[in-house]
Amino acid sequence: xxxxxxxxxxxxxxxxxxxxxxxxxxxxxxxxxxxxxxxxxxxxxxxxxxxxxxxxxxxxxxxxxxxxxxxxxxxxxxxxxxxxxxxxxxxxxxxxxxxxxxxxxxxxxxxxxxxxxxxxxxxxxxxxxxxxxxxxxxxxxxxxxxxxxxxxxxxxxxxxxxxxxxxxxxxxxxxxxxxxxxxxxxxxxxxxxxxxxxxxxxxxxxxxxxxxxxxxxxxxxxxxxxxxxxxxxxxxxxxxxx
Length: 242
Fold this sequence. Notes:
This protein is mainly alpha-helical. It is 69% helix and 0% strand.
């Protein structure tokens, strides 16, 4: 029996443990599948099943983050995680229970992070899947973006890594310090420093006054210079923590 066929069974749900085990138990009630109960005694199978439940739960809650789950998002979930049609009923039980609201997603994300310690590639692929679902209806809602940012942080991503991930999928975030500086989050510190110095010089109010910029625009230039300095300081502080 495939992994998707093993996700039913209240006994297994409680054996899996944690919030994901509880979700499985709530989703299937008293139904019991012998193969799942047996799998719960095998650490590797239990790990596999727990991760599968986590994928379903996070996908459902992310789709609900903007207030409604669309057909495009459900279809995207089926596509990216390759759910066989014959097993959609089983998967649907867990998905429908998880998508009722977004509350509790952080507990699911932490359990997955603990489960997949040392396997950053799997966590990265899961985040890619969440973005695929979020973009399936043609627009990444701010709440969906906040959801993915929060999950990535729980997965151990740094602020810079999260900014890179977001930038790659949805473009520059106007509130991101890298966007303020007009530079990619992946640049090394030497390039960042040179770029900052060049911007600071170009936008320094004294330089603009000397160049004959109208006095009405000096206030704008002063504000722009302050934004550049603040963005650079923020990036330096974030990188110092990594």
